[in-house]
Amino acid sequence: MSAYASAPDCASAWRRASSPTVYLLGMGMRRGEVLGARWSDVDLAAGTVTVRRTRVLVGDQVVTTTPKSARSRRTVPLTPEARRALAPTRERTLGSSNVVPIGDHRGADDRLVAIDAAGEPITPWGFRREVLALMATAGVPVIRVHDIRHSVATIMLEAGQPPHVVARILGHDPAVLMRTYPHVGDASAAGAVAALGQAIAGG
């Protein structure tokens, strides 16, 4: 059964986040989508990140692949907090010479967003450790990394955002979304991610 983090719990954790990639997780992105994001996917001026690939664990290997469905290939709005967290990291990363290029991509913008202090790609298990440690440090209930995605969906729906908008942000089928969250109403409002940011900021 899934567990959920409340908006105040999310706010407490985000305030202590040292890695801006945690903010991408807070946009409802899957772990593999966060780990697969490159700086060429992030448009800070527009306030968006486009999901084009994922980095996932297959057996004992981390592989880069395409999103699992057409809905998963999407552009996700960023909250102002996420933009502010990502901006200095982008500047440091793209100006650093010890960042490992991925595959045949040698352009600076093709560097991964999720890297460690040595400039190496963060692994799925390393990211899990980081997120769980963050929740423990914040003193909030420790839930699975994937359940943060469920929490983001619940917060947006409880803030009155239309299910089809929330589904598009998460890369979900709207019908599946409402089967997963039948307890949440369908009041209409504008700016689902803005509402997410406001709900967390208010926490």
TrEMBL record:
<dbReference type="InterPro" id="IPR002104">
    <property type="entry name" value="Integrase_catalytic"/>
</dbReference>
<dbReference type="GO" id="GO:0006310">
    <property type="term" value="P:DNA recombination"/>
</dbReference>
<dbReference type="InterPro" id="IPR013762">
    <property type="entry name" value="Integrase-like_cat_sf"/>
</dbReference>
<feature type="domain" description="Tyr recombinase">
    <location>
        <begin position="1"/>
        <end position="195"/>
    </location>
</feature>
<dbReference type="Pfam" id="PF00589">
    <property type="entry name" value="Phage_integrase"/>
</dbReference>
<keyword id="KW-0233">DNA recombination</keyword>
<dbReference type="InterPro" id="IPR050090">
    <property type="entry name" value="Tyrosine_recombinase_XerCD"/>
</dbReference>
<dbReference type="GO" id="GO:0003677">
    <property type="term" value="F:DNA binding"/>
</dbReference>
<dbReference type="InterPro" id="IPR011010">
    <property type="entry name" value="DNA_brk_join_enz"/>
</dbReference>
<dbReference type="GO" id="GO:0015074">
    <property type="term" value="P:DNA integration"/>
</dbReference>
<protein>
    <submittedName>
        <fullName>Site-specific integrase</fullName>
    </submittedName>
</protein>
